[in-house]
């Protein structure tokens, strides 16, 4: 009989962690290894995608739960230690079910680890996709001890993530497994729309295109992407450079951008095209990928750029990306926050076609070991080590 696993996602938005989980679950389903159930703490555009994989349930909303826009439900939903009561936020359909393991995708879901442990009396895994800044924003007073103690194994997505869990939260290193993020290489390397059609759609021609991607928040450095456009124009007036950002644009950032872009005179240099279901169709038009993140544990967008042979320019000390691009093999590392140096490095790649192609080729070779088929097996090994396999 297949083992029953409950996967918990903090939401179903088209962002890094839910996308990684969705791809992993698709891969698991293909191999028909486990009996899967999915629990979402919050909804999002990927809700139906999760439903196509397995029965998917939503957490019940409770009175008094902090759901302010700033936190968006990321605060602790439970802070008590007693068993789950009939008014628990867990859907009634799950209450009496048996699960062999609970898998929490992101530390946000850690806020209900103890309650899940009590409810289902099984091992719990917490897959941490967050580093120092993100975790400090989520947990003002540190990780809740009773929820941490309920976790049997943490999965860290980079050495930087693992180090932060040990150094900042005193989690036993033996309790942490290092498993890098994954990309579905076969799928991502095959855009479904020709490059020429995308360029026509975006009304771009004969431009050198710099790509960026992610949510428009401080951590992803989207404001630095705007500064990058300024410095490129200053260093190379009358250029043919276009900057293209892929990802949902918040109303707050849009107001900030409209204000600043006019003053920096970069309105014609940048295009924000929103979130896309098939990002590979747009990544294919990039000549270079600019990772402006201030903090990114092991950025999925960098893996996706590398899959399409795009050289990556990134900041040092910004998370796990230096673990992917080592000694400038596949990209160029610049000092943290140094946008001027990033602009100079991008112009170097723009001016040297051979160097650009070489680094793009290096990136595509590096990425092979991060395919979902390889990373998926590593996660399954961890799951099977905690589950009693018949």
From TrEMBL:
Keywords recorded for this protein, A-Z: Transferase
InterPro entries hit by this protein: Glyco_trans_4-like_N (IPR028098)
Sections of the chain in a coiled coil: none
Keyword Ribonucleoprotein: no
Domain Glycosyltransferase subfamily 4-like N-terminal per the UniProt entry, residue ranges: 74-185
GO molecular function: glycosyltransferase activity
The name this protein goes by in its record: Glycosyltransferase family 4 protein
Species the sequence originates in: Mucilaginibacter robiniae
């Amino acid at each position: 009989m297949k083992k029953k696993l409950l996967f918990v996602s903090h939401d179903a938005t088209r962002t890094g962690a839910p996308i990684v989980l969705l791809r992993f679950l698709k891969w698991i389903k293909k191999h028909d290894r486990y009996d899967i159930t999915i629990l979402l703490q919050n909804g999002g555009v990927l809700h139906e995608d999760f439903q196509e994989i397995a029965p998917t349930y939503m957490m019940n909303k409770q009175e008094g739960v902090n759901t302010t826009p700033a936190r968006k439900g990321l605060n602790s939903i439970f802070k008590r230690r007693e068993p789950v009561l009939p008014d628990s936020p867990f859907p009634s359909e799950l209450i009496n079910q048996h699960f062999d393991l609970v898998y929490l995708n992101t530390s946000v879901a850690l806020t209900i680890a103890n309650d899940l442990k009590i409810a289902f009396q099984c091992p719990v895994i917490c897959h941490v996709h967050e580093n120092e800044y993100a975790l400090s924003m989520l947990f003002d007073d540190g990780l809740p001890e009773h929820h941490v103690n309920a976790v049997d194994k943490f999965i860290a997505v980079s050495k930087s993530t693992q180090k932060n869990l040990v150094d900042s939260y005193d989690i036993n290193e033996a309790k942490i497994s290092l498993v890098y993020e994954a990309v579905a290489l076969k799928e991502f390397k095959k855009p479904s729309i020709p490059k020429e059609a995308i360029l026509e759609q975006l009304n771009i021609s004969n431009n050198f295109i710099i790509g960026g991607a992610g949510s428009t928040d401080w951590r992803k450095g989207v404001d630095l992407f705007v500064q990058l456009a300024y410095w490129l124009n200053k260093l190379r007036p009358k250029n043919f450079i276009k900057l293209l950002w892929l990802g949902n644009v918040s109303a707050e950032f849009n107001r900030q951008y409209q204000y600043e872009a006019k003053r920096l005179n970069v309105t014609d240099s940048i295009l924000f095209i929103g979130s896309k279901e098939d990002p590979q169709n747009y990544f294919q038009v990039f000549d270079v990928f600019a990772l402006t993140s201030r903090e990114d544990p092991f950025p999925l967008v960098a893996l996706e750029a590398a899959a399409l042979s795009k050289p990556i320019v990134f900041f040092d000390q910004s998370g796990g990306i230096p673990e992917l691009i080592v000694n400038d093999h596949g990209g160029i590392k610049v000092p943290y926050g140094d946008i001027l140096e990033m602009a100079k490095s991008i112009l170097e790649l723009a001016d040297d076609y051979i160097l650009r192609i070489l680094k793009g080729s290096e990136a595509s070779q590096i990425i092979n070991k991060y395919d979902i088929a390889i990373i998926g097996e590593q996660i399954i090994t961890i799951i099977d080590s905690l589950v009693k396999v018949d």
